[in-house]
Amino acid sequence: MAHSPTPTRTTAPATTAPLDPQDRARLAAAVDRAARLDPDTGTAAVLGALLPPAELRELAGLCVYDHSALLLFPPDHDALLVALADLGLSAGALVPSVVVKQRLAERHGPALAGADVRITHASVPGRGGAAGSVVEIFSCPAAQAGPDVRAAERRAETEQHTALRVVSTAPDALDRAVSLLVDRAGFCPDGGGYNPHEQRAAGGTTVRYLARVGTAPDRLVRLELKRHGRHGGDAPVPAVWSEDVARVYRANATHANATHEGEL
């Protein structure tokens, strides 16, 4: 089963500035997507067209579908909670996001390294009595990211992703899942790291991001592989971009030195 948000609930205030209409529409779309996926069938639904049957079965034995995610720019974090409440959802505690804040600074300059980027999860009921899912939201207050940054991130959906959670107890399960997706599904490593704040009771969370260019040449398909606990050191995991993925990041960066290019 997909993880449940932390039991500690954050209550939305009675009044706060509204979420930007574009972000409201993006949030509603992410919730709709999460409602259509579930832990039992989500891996096949997301990757069935990209992996051969044998590799898809192996991956499904290592991971389950966990959540759909996106980055929003609310006036403040309270505005996000209000928007979720308007959709009938309640969020878990907003905790600091370590990896996404770093990624924003890499794309748009060091000023973003001081942004108060938070992460929260909200349970989404399944359709027709099906098992529910989760939507993950990264929240960066709009005032801490300029209009060019907000426009670039909304246009490219650079932090939008689908996440698989490693459930296998094999010590190398995370690395094996990454290898399957890189070697057999055309993804390239897109960074990652360790966040001690997320699922603290389970020892934090280790994440690996993967990316490939989608059907639209200016958009990426991104996956997150996550495993509870610390798997690897504290240093961020570097991206090893293919040429076409690097091109998309360059086109959507607002800082001249934001992107760094690697080779598979």
Describe the structure.
With 264 residues, the protein is an alpha+beta fold. The chain has one domain. It has helices at 21-35, 42-47, 53-62, 77-86, 98-108, 147-156, 173-185, 243-251; strands spanning 63-72, 95-96, 118-124, 133-139, 161-166, 188-195, 205-213, 220-228, 237-239. Strands 2-3-4-1-5-8-7-6-9 form a 9-stranded mixed sheet, with helices on both faces. The radius of gyration is 17 Å and the shape is globular. Residues 1-18 have a biased composition (Low complexity). Residues 1-21 are annotated as: Disordered.
Quick summary:
With 264 residues, the protein is α+β, with helices and mostly antiparallel strands. Helix content is 32%, strand content 23%. The model is unreliable at 1-12 and 256-264 (pLDDT under 50).
Fold blueprint:
Blueprint: H1 21-35, H2 42-47, H3 53-62, E1 63-72, H4 77-86, E2 95-96, H5 98-108, E3 118-124, E4 133-139, H6 147-156, E5 161-166, H7 173-185, E6 188-195, E7 205-213, E8 220-228, E9 237-239, H8 243-251
Parallel strand pairs: 1-4, 5-8
Antiparallel strand pairs: 1-5, 2-3, 3-4, 6-7, 6-9, 7-8
Q: Key features?
A:
264 residues; alpha+beta; 9-stranded mixed beta sheet; globular; disordered N terminus; disordered C terminus
Radius of gyration in whole Å, from Cα?
17 Å
Strand content: 15-25%
Count every beta strand, where a strand is a DSSP E run of 2 or more residues. 9
Quaternary form:
single chain
Q: Helix- and strand-based class? A: alpha+beta
Strand order in the largest sheet: 2-3-4-1-5-8-7-6-9
| Mean pLDDT across all amino acids | 84
Q: Biggest sheet: strands, sense, closure?
A: 9 strands, mixed
Order of helices and strands: HHHEHEHEEHEHEEEEH
Mass-distribution shape: globular
The count of helical stretches stands at: 8
Question: Spans of 5+ residues with little confidence (pLDDT < 50)?
Answer: 1-12, 256-264
What is the count of distinct domains?
1
**Termini distance?**
33 Å
Helical coverage, percent range = 25-40%
Biased composition (Low complexity): 1-18
Region (Disordered): 1-21
